[in-house]
């Protein structure tokens, strides 16, 4: 039946379809427990609290307390951890120096134990070996590379470490001898100074500086 044939007052087909549509429910605000009604911050900001800024004195205090954190020791023995060589500013330099100090203080405590803990020393020696092989020697140093791989054989040194017979100082003396053979003459004074050090921690620190 066409719309023109429908009795007056009868709804058309389009009117019937419109009447069958569900009414749209208007959106309702969902209350958030604990949210302050008077806060000007959005409700998704936790607690509606303003940002807290740390003063310079508080930051320096946290930096000093870093020395006492045992976490520093875990960072120290991670071979993938590196500290940037060039601090961007005085604060970064202060943090770096504090971490280095804590790093070596923890190492002294490790060496003072009975028996001493030498895991970090072992990792340090292997890093020096890798540095010499990868960064100093060239493809022409075939014989010297073979010598180093023999003298600083990782499985053999690790076996000595497990047996508590690893002489770290003797290994360091061999590395210093390598430095004297590989370094240019202008560095002879620094190599000579390395030979005078009998404290293992001082030796590690000086090697890091050289």
UniProtKB/TrEMBL annotation:
Residues 1-43 are annotated as: Disordered. GO terms for biological process: signal transduction. Transmembrane segments: none annotated. Residues 1-18 have a biased composition (Basic and acidic residues). PANTHER family: LD23868P, TESTIS-SPECIFIC PROTEIN PBS13 T-COMPLEX 11. Belongs to the TCP11 family. This is Uncharacterized protein.
């Amino acid at each position: 039946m066409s719309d023109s044939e429908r009795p007056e007052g009868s709804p058309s087909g389009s009117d019937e379809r419109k009447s069958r549509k569900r009414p749209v429910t208007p959106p309702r605000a969902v209350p958030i427990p604990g949210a302050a009604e008077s806060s000007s911050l959005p409700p998704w900001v936790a607690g509606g609290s303003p940002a807290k800024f740390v003063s310079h004195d508080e930051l320096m205090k946290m930096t000093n307390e870093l020395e006492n954190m045992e976490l520093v020791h875990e960072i120290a023995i991670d071979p993938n951890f590196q500290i940037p060589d060039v601090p961007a500013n005085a604060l970064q330099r202060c943090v770096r120096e504090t971490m280095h100090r804590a790093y070596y203080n923890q190492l002294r405590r490790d060496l003072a134990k009975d028996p001493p803990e030498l895991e970090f020393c072992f990792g340090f020696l292997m890093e020096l070996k890798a540095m010499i092989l990868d960064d100093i020697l060239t493809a022409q140093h075939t014989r010297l590379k073979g010598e180093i791989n023999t003298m600083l054989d990782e499985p053999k040194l690790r076996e000595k470490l497990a047996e508590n017979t690893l002489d770290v100082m003797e290994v360091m003396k061999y590395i210093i001898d390598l430095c004297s053979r590989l370094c240019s003459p202008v560095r002879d004074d620094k190599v000579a100074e390395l030979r005078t050090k009998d404290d293992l921690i001082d030796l590690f620190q000086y090697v890091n500086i050289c």
